[in-house]
Records
---
Amino acid sequence: MNQKVIVSGNLERDLVNAIAECEHDKIFILTDQTTHDMCLPKLQNFLCLKGAQSIVIKAGDTNKTLDSLAEVWTALSQGGATRHSLMINLGGGMVTDLGGFAASTFKRGIDFINIPTTLLAMVDASVGGKTGINFGGLKNEIGVFSDSKFVIINTQFLDTLDHDNICSGYAEMLKHGLISDNKHWAELVGFNLAQPDLAQPDLAQLQRMVAESIKVKERIVTEDPHEHGIRKALNLGHTVGHALESFAMKHGRPVLHGYAVAYGMVCELYLSARKTGFPTDKMHQTVRFILDHYGRLPYTCDDYPELLELMRHDKKNTSGIINFTLLGGIGDIRINQTATKEEIEEALDFLREA
């Protein structure tokens, strides 16, 4: 992995140092409307950004589209960007995904820095080199692997988040605990996500937990940057989760990515207990934590054919066979697992009835 991840105690100092190591005849800052209003002011007076040009796109994952991508390319072009320019993506996963893809393809690639502003982007989207947009009703259908030069993590942005977005990011942290070790997992399922803990989070404690979570992802991505093997560990919860997320978006009741992954983990831990020997006590403990904090997604048995079809479109599949990452235990990763239609429907039943 070529990107450098900085868990920052001083955002301005760390940004100055990062910019100094990137080509930058001009600097562009990409935000969505929300991060433009709530997060950009925290950087407004940084001397290193004097003269930087702002590009603003509409907020929300439904805007992670070709149209938004074209807007960014057009703004770069009209702003006089060259192949020696620098883009700073300031925002959640939608901004770092789309901005990374725009930067990676403009003039065949310009340098970019990710400054994630949501917990989800800090522990997931901004680290690991995946960029892309949604296409044809499918999540992240078009994209490239391309590392940002730097990812700068600073939890001061978390005070701009509502409780649901904190929970959304925490789901990916929980996944990292499940694929890591018992101590990491136990701390995560023992944390009280209910208010007031994360309504007014202890940012120092959260920064330490975030740093540990990022280390899990960094270790795996470094070993397998292009997802040929062990990086598939990071897909735990995502085969079912992406299908539920696409389903919810298609039916006009979108859910946050982390919530969809949390529901996906319930189903895939059920499959793990049934097929690969995951301990049922740890499954029930994790499932109880998820249901207590994330509630449930409404769907019925009649929706199963549509959900299975969405799973078949997952990029991890080969020859139409649905591919899962399951666990034999905490940290005991079993990639390239399959399940029958009946087993997947049982897992969906388990989530619906739990």
---
Amino acid sequence: MRLYPLLFSTVLRHMDPEPAHHLAFKVIQATPFLGGLVRRFCRPAPQLRVRTLGLEFPSPFGLAAGFDKNAIGIAGLGEIGFGHVEVGTLTRHAQDGNPQPRMFRLVGDRALINRMGFNNGGSAGAVPRIERARLRRNRPVIGVNIGKSRITEVEDAQQDYVWSTERLAPIADYLAVNVSSPNTPGLRGLQELELLEPLLAAVRDAADGTPLLVKIAPDMENEQIDGIVALALRLGLDGIIATNTTISREGLLESEREIERMGAGGLSGGPLKHRSLAVLRRIRETAPDPDFCVISVGGVTTAADVHDRLLAGATLVQGFTAFIYEGPLWARAINRGLARIGYRGNAAA
């Protein structure tokens, strides 16, 4: 675990974050070819198993959408200890995303700012890769996160989501509807209830029984959060993912000049920790039933952070940004830490 901090401080932090991400992916993609050695070293303890969404998760800790945008590293990410991998965001139309540079590290804050813009090869293009990943033994649970294409007008968004759902629901373990990224124009407006209700109802019907969750932003008032939770319950959705990145820049250690240089985008990582936890608690006030799955995301770094989310009512917990700072053994460290704390999932033998 000491080698990666040295590598990060001497090499990776001086690289543009996006090429560094692609380099890390080459290593992750190679892990399934090591004959199970990595899996035996990193696999979660049996007592961490969690049953939710009609599925059994090897661990409550998984990887949030945004890391594996094109479903190319599912097997390797499972090998290094993630109990589930949420791929995407996938859109109906393949798209390049926003111009580079579009990802920035705030090292002192253990945070990232990104304005990637749903760069991906399209929903249909990901289908064969997800199908292959499903056939592997000892694979993680595969979530698929879907969003609106940039070229699609907001009033036509429902058709976009349904098109992707019809192709991805049959091969996904669960689907997540992303209406909360700040990097696609008009997308967050879909969180307004009069637009969100028909969209989610249409996706639910197209999903045809595949577990369905909606991913929400942290930048909403409590009343709006309550409204979305009530809507999800009324429509019979299986859960909520809380939260996406934030547009807030409050409380950062990074200089204002540097933050201004980085520009617009969603902020993730350590600064989101307290708001993400507050949103989780708010959701559980409205939806206390443990069968309603709440996946907590935002500002998670340590096993204690994950345990705090589970105690606050999270069914599962996801991370992303700390992966950049903690390195490839991060999920293993989280799982080992949970076992030391004494956490036992509801599917533990």
---
Amino acid sequence: MKKISIIISLLATAFLASCGSENTKTATDNAAAITVTMSQISENTNSPFLSVSGKIQSEKSATLSTRMMGFVTNVPVNVGDKVSNGQLLVAVNNDDLQAKKAQVNASILEATAAFKNAEKDFNRFKNLFQEKSASQKEFDDVTAHYQMAKARLEAANQMKNEINSQFAYTNITAPFSGVITAKMIEKGDMANPGQPLISIEAPGNFEVIAMVPESEISAIKQGISVDVTIKSINETVKGIVKEVSSSSKNTGGQYLVKIQLTKTPNTILSGMFATVQFPMAKTSKSTSILIPKDVIVSNGQLSGVYTVSQSNTAILRWLTLGKSVGNQVEVLSGLNANESYIVSANGKLFNGAKVSIQ
């Protein structure tokens, strides 16, 4: 009897455990169902375009330097100041040039006096020679002396022109009207030949510098119209391709393209980053699949999207992605046209999770 009681107790315990497990499983299955919203893929048949990053700069800009070495005596402008064409920007000490100029002026006075005296002798002996009152050798000596005096005077005048041209490098002036964008030197600093001192830009007209990969550069032609999106100010403006480089020797395999902006809002500033969309020729392979960027699931170098199986479970499908098109991205492989994918869920998705389509 005792053995029978033990067997009955074990069977009852097993039965109760089986019922509890079944109830737990059912509750878990019900709790695991996540409500999701689906979206169906549609093929993009619009004309394709290439999207590249670029940087805005002024069409007219200059960084000024000097050919002279000396202490800076004056910098009367600051960053942000508006300046006029010819306005003084930087003054470098020019005492040595002033001394050289004084020496050259003295040389000019001396050469001028010698030339005038030689010219009188030349004219006098010319008349005497015509009257046969002076020999050929005497006339030749006077002529040579006159020509040498004339040459010395010309050399002194050219030296004065050289000195005057050097003064332009001690008084740096604005080459055009604009705004000071950078100031790399202060009063009392030593200026060296070739050292950047100050930068100036002419406001109003801007261009975008973009780098295009070699696989796409053949489709970029001068004169085509492009869209330029400036995210920092939430503006999209039109531009015209005005320059296309034919060499990538010094740009790391990328080809430089310049785009002139046809509209320049006041909020645009030099140095802002932009996205340039170049229209591409439409071909039989132009049809592409696009999905929103915010539905992409990333895991290291892998990118994927959740789909739903026939048994209503979530499946993470890995994708090969292509170009970005605004807030969408091109799918090269992993999804086919007219398939559906999950765009939102009211819980955390994982492979095999039960889902309920809304």
